[in-house]
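During the practical work, I selected for study one protein's amino acid sequence and its backbone structure tokens, as given directly below:
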Amino acid sequence: MKLEDYGFIGDTYTGALVGINGSIDWLCTPRFDSDACFTALLGTEKNGHWQISPREPVQHVRHAYRDDTLVLETLFETANGTVRLIDLMPPRGKYRDVVRIVEGVKGLVEMEMKLVIRFDYGQTIPWVKQSEDGLIAIAGPNALVLRSDVPTFGEDLSTMARFSIGKGERKSFVLTWHPSHEAPPKAIDALHSLQETEKYWSEWAARCTYKGEYRQAVIRSLMTLKALTYVPTGGIVAALTTSLPEKLGGVRNWDYRFCWLRDATFTLYSFMQAGYTEEAAAWSQWLLRAVAGDPAQLQIMYGAAGERRLTEVQLAHLVGYESSTPVRIGNAASEQLQLDVYGEVMDAMYLARQMKIEFELDSWHLERHLVDFVERNWNKPDEGIWEIRGPRRDFTHSKVMAWVAVDRAVRGIEEFGLEGPLEHWRELRDTIHREVCEKGFHAERKAFTQFYGSDKLDAALLMMPLVGFLPPTDDRVRSTVELIEKELVVDGFVQRYHPDESASVDGLPPGEGSFLPCSFWLVDCLHLMGREREAREMFQRLLDVRTSLGLISEEYDTARHRLIGNFPQAFTHVGLINTARNLSPKLGPAEHRSALGHDGV
């Protein structure tokens, strides 16, 4: 099934993907990064799924979210009638629930439910028993209890139910996770949970202060970000999934169920500019706690609660999404040196200070140590923003972000009266800026290039005017943007770098989709350069590749015209939100700031 055919439900602890065929094919519980109990997305139905759908042929099917909520409705039409399937995950405390309600709309429809629970990413068959609490499935530390309005029976290591649904009738199914060493929690009322979940999301959406022309797209993206938030800590995972390929049938399949420092500033800006100060503050506090300690031990990503050990493992028993292997859990890139994240952390702290977010820890003391580390290491090669698996390089973008780290420290002293070696940091900032302009710019190509000595382009360099390294009016910026448009834009979407030559850079087989955040960066650059019509046309193309539910993934396959990569992708939704705000003229001049939330220099 294509990604476009999946809906996303979540409870701010974890989430699930629900197919338009009524099958939940992906669910990790109790956290985003826990082992999956439904893994059909990366394997087959035998690796776990939960389907509720008509037994008779479906003539037409469509799905939609109920107003501004994360309650998903799927409408099945058959020759004998119409039935509605309602899916949701009610936000609540210790336990995780998936609530499914079947409503008769017209006629009489014969329905079937098939529940295949396989813990440990589709590998472990649970012990199943019937009790007064419901049908309980147990394996190791995990237990799921099914409570159903219709009788169930076992068949081929699955739990089945067959029933008919007439107009005005409702049948409910509730699947609840709990620790296997504890008794099952009390049953929840499905209809009451539906009402409470609707209220939760409707009230949250109503807080959005964005009033621009792209309001509906922005609200849906903000809700997606909220749903990807691990609410106990405020951490925001990069995506719901792991190992959805960047090229169908390829090996660029990574686990994105973790929190990237790189996303911090963009996400902060998205939440703050839409009025969600609590979420922005929680994300800032997560960031500060995660990076606390020796700056030399800073990682590019952490677990949802700040965990550091994200060991990468391949799951050989899964065939992968559309035969794309290997399937990976964990992420070895967490051990890489990526100098740009120091700039992103300093930028996020600077933005949070601008927004008057108060920190629990001594933020400035930590920030000074981060700048000291940058001073000692900025001129070293690293793996860069694209987390290459090849040799380290002197990536131009990494040096630019090292400049950002020092620049935000200087601004902290100048604008907030913080203590530090102001003149020394100003000199360091100038030194980095001078070297990037000398070594990162290719005179013959008239463009900044991917790394020192290279003549190849990199879409990450679109960030230069957005972070204030150079103004958008600078001739070098203009010529770089124009060359990126000429060489890295395919069918209206931006490639990260030359895809056919990627193996020489990242050590992986060539070929991938267009990394969608890069396209949003280009829209921002076009807007800042005064090319408003082109910016809006490109933004509309990006809006058009969203699913009918307003969701978007990491990348877009321009040859097959479909979404690929992990889904839904927080970074892409953040790009949509920030670019929409930049393009909204009704917000007034004071609101027109760059994609990272501060004016260029």
The chain is about 30% helix and 25% strand. The radius of gyration is 25 Å.
